[in-house]
Automatic annotation (TrEMBL):
<dbReference type="GO" id="GO:0047617">
    <property type="term" value="F:fatty acyl-CoA hydrolase activity"/>
</dbReference>
<dbReference type="InterPro" id="IPR003736">
    <property type="entry name" value="PAAI_dom"/>
</dbReference>
<comment type="similarity">
    <text>Belongs to the thioesterase PaaI family.</text>
</comment>
<dbReference type="InterPro" id="IPR006683">
    <property type="entry name" value="Thioestr_dom"/>
</dbReference>
<dbReference type="InterPro" id="IPR039298">
    <property type="entry name" value="ACOT13"/>
</dbReference>
<feature type="domain" description="Thioesterase">
    <location>
        <begin position="62"/>
        <end position="149"/>
    </location>
</feature>
<keyword id="KW-0378">Hydrolase</keyword>
<protein>
    <submittedName>
        <fullName>Thioesterase</fullName>
    </submittedName>
</protein>
<dbReference type="InterPro" id="IPR029069">
    <property type="entry name" value="HotDog_dom_sf"/>
</dbReference>
<dbReference type="Pfam" id="PF03061">
    <property type="entry name" value="4HBT"/>
</dbReference>
Amino acid sequence: MTKTIATPLEFEPEFIAGVKTIFEEKIVFNHVLGLKVVSLAPECVVARIDMKPELVGHYAYNRIHGGVISAGLDAMGGLAVMAAIGARHMDETPEQRLHRFARLGTIDLRVDYLRPGIGSHFELRAEVLRLGSRVATTRMEFFGPDGVLMSAAAAAYIVS
């Protein structure tokens, strides 16, 4: 008996470019945060935030504000859902799939702050645990420049 190995699904360059444009430029808050997509795959998305003065909390000069961490993790959960929706509808053109994101919204978000957000840059990762017809569940992580986990989150998003 031969075993069939599934080929990992890859997005077209035009879909990736479209998602990056939506995520980094058209969602103004993500632009202000400086969120930049590093990789976009159906099973995991990765982005980066470089430290800048606007992101610093009022109480500590060199720490990224907890609200920025929370907003970044929420945005990453949404990006993971975008990737999962895009993967689910590979029979459509990239342009058709990009129009599916208009009704995406956060239902619930929980963030656990594990360590102070100190560093020159940060990496954020997210994955979809379940993509239903109306609700998606995600898990997100926020890492410091040394690769240490600083915050973890879970969220639910409306996808209909």
